[in-house]
Every structure is written in structure tokens, then in C-alpha cells.
Design a protein that fits this description.
Elements lengths: L12 E4 L4 E6 L2 E6 L11 H23 L6 E11 L4 E12 L4 H14 L1 H9 L1 E9 L6
């Protein structure tokens, strides 16, 4: 017996001006990006936005699983790196370091991490396209800075 699947559609629009300053319109937000032929220093480029999408996915799932498991936390932060190879140009590897301020025991922290890795939309998509690794670090609420 085949399990039915459901789909959800996401849509954004984007535009650019000659010279490469671009803007993505997503829901009610405008996100400026560097669409120039060279890499700029002021605005995020497409690879930066890909890292941002992974970051947002993981942090959203920290909040999501805090309700589902439940899992108590005060805050979470993440750092993501991506390695690009060429030719052809492509992202070959991404790595994240998730930091969660919590007093949950180690087994619960690992459960949170397994759920994030298994059920993240962007996480699953990127893991299918490149090497994706990461770790979670718990910081007790008394040790948060």
C-alpha cells in the first residue's frame, strides 16, 4: 500500500537592476542581495542566502520541537559554513554548529538534534545535494553569555 504524499508550494519573486543590486520579495519582506557579476562585500549573495535558509530551518525546528517533544530552551544560535568547488561551481559541503541554551539532559539534546536532522525541509533537501554535517552544543542557562 502506498502512503499518500502531500505537497506545499512556496513562492517568492525577485528582481535586479543593472549592476547587480537585487531584491527578493518573500511574503511581506524584502531581502536585498548581491546579484553582481563580482562578489560584493555589503549584501549577501546567493550562497549566503542558502546558508541563511539552512540556519532559519534549523532554528525554526528548535522552536517547533520545543513544543512537540517538549524541550525547554532559552535561546539558540547557529553558525553555518559552505564550501564551494569549481568547475563547475557548486556547493559541495555544508557544516553547522548549533548552540542551545538549555538545562535539558544530554539524551534530550541528542533527541532534539536527531529530529532536526530528520524532519527539516531545507536540511533534508541540502543533505540530498551535498555533504551536510553538524553538531549541537548545549550551554546551561547559568553559563549563557
Amino acid at each position: 500500500m502506498t502512503t499518500p504524499t502531500s505537497t506545499m508550494t512556496y513562492a517568492v519573486s525577485a528582481s535586479t537592476r543593472a549592476g547587480g543590486t537585487g531584491s527578493v520579495q518573500a511574503r511581506t519582506s524584502d531581502i536585498a542581495f548581491d546579484g553582481s557579476a563580482q562578489s560584493g562585500n555589503a549584501l549577501p549573495g546567493p550562497a549566503d542566502l542558502l546558508c541563511a535558509a539552512l540556519s532559519a530551518c534549523i532554528l525554526k525546528n528548535v522552536e517547533r520541537f520545543s513544543h512537540m517533544l517538549p524541550f525547554r530552551y532559552e535561546s539558540a544560535s547557529i553558525e553555518v559554513t559552505a564550501d564551494r568547488e569549481e568547475p563547475p561551481p557548486r556547493i559541495i559541503r555544508m557544516h553547522y554548529r548549533l548552540r542551545v541554551v538549555t538545562d535539558e539532559p544530554a539524551a534530550r539534546i541528542e533527541l532534539l538534534h536527531k529530529n532536526i536532522q530528520k524532519f527539516g525541509t531545507i536540511t533534508n533537501t541540502l543533505a540530498a545535494a551535498c555533504e551536510l554535517t553538524g553538531e549541537i552544543e548545549a550551554v546551561s542557562s547559568g553559563g549563557a553569555t
